[in-house]
Design goal:
Helix content is about 35%, strand content about 25%. By secondary structure, it is an alpha+beta fold. The strands form seven sheets. Strands 17-18-16-15-21-22-23 form a seven-stranded mixed beta sheet, with helices on both faces. Strands 3-2-1-5-14-13 form a six-stranded mixed beta sheet, with helices on both faces. The radius of gyration is 22 Å and the shape is globular. The N and C termini lie far apart (about 70 Å). The protein binds adenosine-5'-diphosphate. Adenosine-5'-diphosphate binds next to helix 11 and helix 12. The site of adenosine-5'-diphosphate has 15 residues, from helix 11 and helix 12.
């Protein structure tokens, strides 16, 4: 039998399913968007039943487009939007509240109330900074705000899961309540040193350990789909959070290997092997994956605004109709005309971490035109990424040798060339830039023995293009960028309105 692998890619705005063959060729795709709910400013919710329904539809449609029956799938790999928090009734399987999405900021005030001692304790145990982004404060919010939830949780009647756990619960007909170590490491309740839920952290957030899923390997025989779901029992054999899955899909298996995903935002990750790096530069330490009980770690840094800056030029300023057209416009002038864009449209992420920062275009003259702005926007994406990757390199004590890239905006050759110049290292773009789904498929195939070892996977890499640094001085650009970042910080803070 030809082994086909189904990758389930549960994203923030859409549910996707991709069928790969054993040469990692894509042979079927299904994708459906699901509704986003914004009940209040800075709140973002999904309906867990809509996530499941759209995922089910995506899987059915992927199988149809691949022209295969469910029984022909020999392994399922799941990758998912991380941190998003779902709490459901253990008996009925009904969620007690909507999913609180990773972008949701409702628990910011609670997170700002932490003492320095608690912040250090959390960082030491989990590798994370205390922030509303992670699951812990979201679970706490649900337990405090849904009537009776805290008591029910204390009595062991409720289950918590990130989207991977929720989908596996549904796929297995309620038989499995599990998550893998990469997803667990994003909850702020999981001790990345011991590989276990941390009782002290659970107490800090008043979350009973009994509601947390069992933490399993990212690859292996993890469960099987219930016969009633797709009419076949299919092994579930790969799980990883989306960024970790992309790192795996980019075949960054060794310490020092890094990837950057250019999507709506940018997500950079560097494999640190068996070492948990205690970041001095505000990067996060996280579990990359766990294979046969052994955890591989990574450093992570995210930039909030990347491709969305291009969307803003497209939709907000009406510069072009399609994001890809930014390159043509930028190349009309082929330079920034002396301007710098600070893309802090929703604050600044790593390594600056200022939620009050706001965007700016600086250095405008009578000569500034749309092409300069388009070019400066590409530079802004590359400069944001360079800040993150250089902070990581400092933490690691060695310069990056190269980075591998993926995501929608990695198709932009001009952006990739600017990135290579700024980082002064090669930028490698694989042929298959669906690294996230590919990572889940590789973990799943490894888990059922389609591939015997990660060394065998290395042979699957096909490189599309490598961008090498061009000589030039980027000092003036870097200096202006630094000045711009400083000026943008704190712009929207309450004291600026007094
Ligand atoms: P996500 O997974 O976050 O939705 P994708 O990986 O699909 O993102 O990438 C889409 C993003 O990339 C959009 O924000 C879009 O504006 C941007 N984008 C797509 N193509 C290009 C391009 N050729 N140049 C620059 N940006 C692009």
């Amino acid at each position: 039998m030809v082994p086909y692998i189904l990758a389930i890619d549960a994203g923030t705005t859409s549910s996707r399913a991709i069928v790969f063959d054993k040469d990692t060729k894509k042979i079927g795709l299904g994708q459906f968007e699901f509704p986003q709910y914004f009940p209040k400013s800075s709140w973002v919710e999904h309906n867990p039943n809509e996530i499941w329904a759209s995922q089910h539809k995506a899987i059915t449609s992927a199988l149809k487009s691949a022209k295969i029956q469910p029984g022909a799938i020999s392994a399922i790999g799941i990758t998912n939007q991380r941190e998003t928090t779902i709490v459901w009734d253990r008996l009925t399987g009904e969620p007690i509240y909507n999913a609180i999405v990773w972008q949701d900021r409702r628990t910011s005030d609670f997170c700002s109330s932490f003492s320095e001692a608690s912040i250090n304790q959390v960082a030491e145990k989990t590798g994370l900074i205390v922030d509303a982004y992670f699951s812990a404060s979201k679970i706490r919010w649900i337990l405090k705000h849904v009537e009776g939830a805290q008591d029910r949780a204390n009595r062991g009647e409720l289950s918590f899961g990130t989207v991977d756990s929720w989908l596996i619960y549904k796929l297995t007909g309620g038989a499995k309540h599990i998550t893998d170590a990469s997803n667990a490491s994003r909850t702020m309740l999981y001790n990345i040193h011991s590989g276990m839920w941390d009782k002290e952290l659970c107490d800090l957030f008043e979350i009973p350990v009994s509601m947390l899923p069992e933490v399993v390997n990212s690859s292996g025989h993890l469960g099987s789909t219930d016969q009633d779901v797709f009419g076949a029992e299919i092994p579930i054999s790969g799980i990883a959070g989306d960024q970790q899955s992309a790192l795996f899909g980019q075949l960054c298996f060794s310490a020092g290997e890094a990837k950057n995903t250019y999507g709506t935002g940018c997500f950079a990750m560097t494999n640190t092997g068996s070492q948990i790096v205690n970041s001095k530069n505000k990067m996060l330490s996280t579990v990359a994956w766990q294979l046969n009980g052994t955890r591989t770690y990574a450093l992570e840094g995210s930039v909030y605004v990347a491709g969305s800056l291009i969307q803003w030029l497209r939709d907000g300023l009406g510069f072009f109709d399609q994001s890809a057209d930014v390159e043509k416009l930028a190349l009309k002038e082929g330079e920034n005309g002396g301007i710098t864009i600070i893309p802090a449209l929703t604050g600044l992420g790593a390594p600056h971490w200022d939620s009050y920062a706001r965007g700016a275009i600086m250095g405008i003259t009578r000569g500034t035109n749309t092409s300069h702005i388009a070019y400066a926007a590409l530079e802004a994406i590359a400069l944001s990424t360079a800040d993150v990757l250089e902070a990581m390199a400092k933490d690691l004590g060695q310069p990056l040798k190269s980075i591998r890239v993926d995501g929608g905006a990695s198709a932009n050759n001009t952006l990739m060339q600017i990135q290579s110049n700024l980082l002064n290292c090669p930028v490698i773009r694989p042929f298959e830039t669906e690294s996230t789904a590919l990572g889940a498929a590789l973990l799943a195939g490894l888990g059922t023995g389609i591939w015997k070892s990660i060394h065998e996977l290395k042979k699957l890499a096909e490189i599309d293009d490598t961008f090498t640094p061009k000589d030039g001085s980027y000092t003036a650009l870097r200096n202006q960028w630094k000045k711009g970042i400083q000026a943008s910080k704190g712009w929207a803070s309450p004291e600026n309105y007094e």
